[in-house]
Specification:
Blueprint (H helix, E strand, L loop, with lengths): L8 H7 L13 H11 L18 H17 L11 H4 L4
Length: 93
């Protein structure tokens, strides 16, 4: 890789963006497997690799999503009272 091809810190920070809306199209399993194989090389503090992954689809995904919404609605960090249930359910997940 040439020096000109390496992005600067400024470029990396300024060009970074977040995606908050996703397509309803499922991600092909082989692409997920490839991403996980690459992610195994990501650094972690003291190589503790603290991540845990859950793959769910269909009815199992819907049940998991509802359970996570329920917990988030009532246990939001810093919340002094439960948030309205609609607040998170309105998100396109």
């Amino acid at each position: 890789m040439t020096e000109a091809a390496i992005p600067t810190l400024d470029q990396t920070i300024l060009e970074r963006h977040s995606i908050r809306k996703f397509l309803p199209t499922p991600v092909p399993r082989d692409l997920v497997d490839e991403a996980l194989a690459l992610a195994q090389h990501a650094p972690s503090n003291s190589n503790i690799q603290p991540w845990r992954l859950v793959f769910a689809s269909g009815a199992a995904r819907d049940r998991l999503k509802e359970a996570l919404y329920k917990v988030a609605d009532h246990e939001a960090p810093g919340a002094t009272h439960p948030r309205p249930a609609q607040s998170l359910r309105a998100l396109p997940l």
